[in-house]
Structure to design on (392 residues):
């Protein structure tokens, strides 16, 4: 529940819509109730409803609007009771801590189901809402815990403020951060997301891209061995080899079988993914657009060639702002300058793994890893946990 819902534009509206999609996708019988938007509508829930707005303006002036307030509260209680009679829990976003519709905040605890007050903002600690920071009813709604209501915050800061304003025990206030839709932010196509799930690389943390065709001079066995070397420090690391068999090599198929054998020997079948293996009807599954998406997803690009005539993957990785780990070839340095993590051309897999590990500890790579913790799919388990607890 919120005052308005998507497609109305707003930060909280976007979070509510993300929660709806996430929970519905996990099989929860979820619905959204608001005053405006594409959802179940109760007009008086809207903060811009004329009567709601008039009462809010009067309360900001300290005026006595008890009769109007009680009348709207009774109307809302009646409508909410009918709407929510089959619900186990109401997740009320900002409704219980902001002054935009205090009759709604007063009516909701009397309407039936328990409430999880999902707190994005807190009027009682915000100077912008000083006009509502008054003693007595209904201003008490903004700083006193309400019946049948559990409070949740979107950050540690909001938890501290919530506990300060409402006198709550911090141990009883859960924190569930907002999430980020990586696919949407990076502009991944739906078909690429589906393919990534099928291939098994969307959950890589980190994803190391090897943007090579499968030819012997690329020395992809070094990438396989590096995955083995790094398995303990990065247990969710995955190497993704994007290319098909080299079109002109006479021993491409034999070399690929050697790589597969090495992958099996080191028990890294789930850590090294050859997208060539997912070809259907002889057509390689990675097009130019998907290559761009793979660069966006990558935490590092690994180039293990023994020789090259140009360093195009270095340039492509640079456009995607992703770290490049490569054999110390002149053409790679020509393209990437000093901004590369290199290893000697004749170095063993241990040196490759060491250079890759250094790149994955760079500021940019660590920031990317930190952000991954906030992806919506990773938030689902925590979201379900607090819902079950609040509804119990």
């Amino acid at each position: 529940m919120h005052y308005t819902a998507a497609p109305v534009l707003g930060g909280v509206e976007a979070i509510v819509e993300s929660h709806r999609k996430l929970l519905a996708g996990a099989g929860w019988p979820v619905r959204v109730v608001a005053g405006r938007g594409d959802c179940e509508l109760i007009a008086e829930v809207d903060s811009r409803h004329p009567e709601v707005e008039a009462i809010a303006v009067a309360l900001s002036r300290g005026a006595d609007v008890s009769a109007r307030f009680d009348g709207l509260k009774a109307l809302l209680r009646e409508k909410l009771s009918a709407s929510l009679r089959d619900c186990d829990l109401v997740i009320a976003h900002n409704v219980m801590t902001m002054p935009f519709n205090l009759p709604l905040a007063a009516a909701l605890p009397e309407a039936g189901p328990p409430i999880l007050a999902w707190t994005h903002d807190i009027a009682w600690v915000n100077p912008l809402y000083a006009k509502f920071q008054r003693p007595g009813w209904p201003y008490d709604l903004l700083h006193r815990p309400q019946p049948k209501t559990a409070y949740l915050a979107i950050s540690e800061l909001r938890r501290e403020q919530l506990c300060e304003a409402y006198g709550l025990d911090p141990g009883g206030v859960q924190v569930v951060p907002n999430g980020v839709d990586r696919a949407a932010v990076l502009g991944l196509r739906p078909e690429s997301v589906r393919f990534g799930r099928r291939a098994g690389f969307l959950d890589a943390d980190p994803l190391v891209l090897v943007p090579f065709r499968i030819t012997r001079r690329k020395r992809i066995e070094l990438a396989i061995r590096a995955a083995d070397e790094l398995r303990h420090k990065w247990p969710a690391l995955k190497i993704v080899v994007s290319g098909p068999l080299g079109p002109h090599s006479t021993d491409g198929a034999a070399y690929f079988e050697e790589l597969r054998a090495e992958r099996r020997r080191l028990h890294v079948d789930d850590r090294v993914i050859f997208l060539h293996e997912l070809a259907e009807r002889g057509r390689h599954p990675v097009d130019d657009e998907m290559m761009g998406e793979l660069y966006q997803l990558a935490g590092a690009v690994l180039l293990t060639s023994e020789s090259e005539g140009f360093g195009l993957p270095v340039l492509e990785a640079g456009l995607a702002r992703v770290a490049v780990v490569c054999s110390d070839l002149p053409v790679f340095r020509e393209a990437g300058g000093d901004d590369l993590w290199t290893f000697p051309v004749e170095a063993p897999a241990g040196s490759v793994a060491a250079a890759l590990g250094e790149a994955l500890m760079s500021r940019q790579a660590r920031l990317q890893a930190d952000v991954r913790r906030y992806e919506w799919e990773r938030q689902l388990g925590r979201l379900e946990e607090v819902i079950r607890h609040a509804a119990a």
About this structure: Residues 66-83 form the longest helix (18 residues). The CA atoms of residues 361 and 367 lie 9 Å apart. The chain has two domains: 11-180+376-391, 183-372.
